[in-house]
Design goal:
about 15% strand, two-stranded parallel ribbon, about 350 residues, Rossmann fold, binds UDP-4-deoxy-4-formamido-beta-L-arabinopyranose
Length: about 350
């Protein structure tokens, strides 16, 4: 249960804070006046992001940022963090997140994503810290029966181990809040985060061949890949290609700051969809990115990707009405900012 605190009085542990969504959230937290402690093992992130964050927020705010390189599953390291910092809230991003990889490596995904969560909440409990925001995903809705998806839409069968880890971690946190009413849990179900900070200093930097559409399109635009492979054009959608609710990563990051303010002094478990409420197709994304980068991007139509759903998009009424949060950036800005990041950092952080 969190005592009412102002941002400057609040120390937030951000696991996975050097990652794509984590780093953008750290920027918003620092600019919002919070103390931030990042724990990240850098298995899917670069330490360079820390300097980039400092460049964005400036010296005073960067003074409020600490970084510990550690695996969240390492209980000794976690205990050292809680011994060293007065952690009030936790935002839990750390976890493997490649859908395709999770199908090939289920043991690693269940072991890492669920194992690090258990270590984290067990350590939190030991130090009397019971306020957590979890980075969940619309993937827990599976293949929707009806759209738009609300927080009351049923959680369905996931199509990959990555999705199941999000599904199961939600359940672990809900059960924890049921067992101990002092817990204060917020589950944020992201739709499809894309884009980058307007500075172009931080952005998405996937290792190897990107699983997700946007980083792949951006790499085609910058000349690292030949063409976009469109996974199916025979879906029941206006142009036959998959439809998703893409949300600007900075809007998503701001949603975490809104959730921190909303959960101040509360207990229980609350779920929020973080999306835009608008569905966009693969071909529409390619067209928008072509306009952002100033040239037509080549693509080929391929077979459907196993596990893909036809369409999903969010109803975000609850986040707007309870937290006063809503996304403000559209597809054009998402592509513009993604292109700005990619064109200035063709090799990402270069590691
Ligand atoms: C989007 C659309 C593809 C790649 C997953 C997770 C979600 C979140 C984001 C991690 C689909 C099509 C894709 C490509 C394509 N997790 N596509 N060619 O699968 O909706 O969501 O990633 O950050 O939790 O479930 O995202 O970007 O992979 O796919 O045609 O090279 O683009 O078929 O229609 P997805 P995605």
């Amino acid at each position: 249960m969190s005592l009412e605190k102002t941002p400057s009085e609040t120390c937030v542990l951000v696991t996975g804070g050097a990652g794509f969504i984590g780093s953008h959230t750290v920027v918003e937290l620092l600019e919002g006046g919070y103390q931030v402690v990042i724990v990240d093992d850098l298995s899917n992130a670069s330490e360079k992001v820390l300097d980039r964050i400092a460049q964005i927020v400036g010296d005073e705010a960067a003074e409020r940022m600490s970084f510990i390189r550690a695996d969240v599953a390492d209980r000794d390291a976690l205990e050292a963090v809680f011994e060293s910092f007065p952690i009030d809230r936790v935002i839990h991003f750390a976890g493997f997140k490649a859908v395709g990889e999770s199908v090939a490596k289920p043991i690693e995904y269940y072991g890492n994503n669920i194992g690090n969560t258990i270590a984290l909440i067990d350590t939190m409990r030991a130090y009397g810290c019971k306020d957590i925001i979890f980075s969940s995903s619309a993937t827990v809705y599976g293949d929707p029966d009806a759209l738009p998806l609300t927080e009351q839409s049923p959680k369905k069968f996931c199509t990959n181990p990555y999705g199941w880890t999000k599904w199961m971690i939600e359940q672990i946190l809900m059960d924890t809040a049921t067992a101990d009413p002092e817990w204060n849990v917020v589950l944020l179900r992201y739709f499809n985060p894309i884009g980058a900070h307007e500075s172009g200093l931080i952005g998405e930097d996937p290792k190897g061949i990107p699983n997700n559409l946007l980083p792949y399109v951006a790499q085609v635009a910058v000349g690292k890949r030949d063409c976009v492979h469109v996974f199916g054009n025979d879906y029941d959608t206006p142009d036959g290609t998959g439809v998703r609710d893409y949300i600007h990563v900075v809007d998503l990051a701001a949603g975490h700051v809104s959730a921190l303010a909303w959960m101040n002094g509360r207990t229980g478990c609350e779920i929020f969809n973080l999306g835009t409420g608008t569905g966009t197709s693969v071909l529409e994304i390619i067209k928008a990115f072509s306009e952002a980068c100033g040239r037509e991007l080549p693509y080929v139509i391929e077979a459907r990707r196993p596990g893909d759903v036809t369409a999903n998009w969010a109803d975000c009424t609850k986040a707007r009405e309870l937290m006063g949060w809503e996304a403000t950036r559209g597809i054009a800005e998402m592509c513009r900012d993604s292109w700005n990041w990619q064109s200035h950092n063709p090799d990402g952080y270069g590691e």
